[in-house]
Design goal:
This protein is an alpha+beta fold. It has four helices and three strands.
Length: 134
């Protein structure tokens, strides 16, 4: 049985190195690449009042969902669980995207979500998937 656990660890470290190389290429494209980049002119803070259930859903297992939303929107997201307030910091577009992604995640909790063309902020690729492929 020792072989099996060793191969599991090997694949886990492979995943980690793949993530690392992807992060490096992504950070290179950002201007400066330093941790404290200059804040954009339209930098601001938006807050959203959310429910307890939505808070858990946005946070995700181990905070993973919140991290993903933050990464793809390039906004800083902080969840104040005690007050059930979501704070979104970034440029106007970053905040708009983060808010949209959070709302999309919250909507999934209660049922199917439909995405339309007007949902596009330059961050959308629409694919038609046949029902029999789902």
């Amino acid at each position: 049985g020792g072989d099996r656990s060793r191969s599991k660890n090997r694949s886990r470290s492979r995943d980690r190195s793949r993530d690392r190389s992807r992060d490096q290429s992504r950070s290179r494209s950002r201007s400066g690449g330093g941790g404290r980049a200059k804040k954009p002119d339209d930098y601001g803070v938006d807050t959203m009042k959310i429910t307890d259930d939505d808070a858990a859903f946005i946070l995700g297992k181990g905070g993973k969902t919140k991290e993903k939303i933050s990464r793809v929107s390039e906004a800083e997201i902080e969840l104040f669980e005690r007050d059930l307030i979501l704070e979104i910091r970034g440029s106007k577009l970053q905040r708009k995207r983060a808010k949209k992604y959070c709302e999309g995640v919250m909507a999934q909790r209660t049922g199917p979500v439909t995405v339309t063309e007007d949902y596009d902020d330059g961050d959308l690729t629409m694919l038609q998937v046949p029902q029999e492929a789902v």
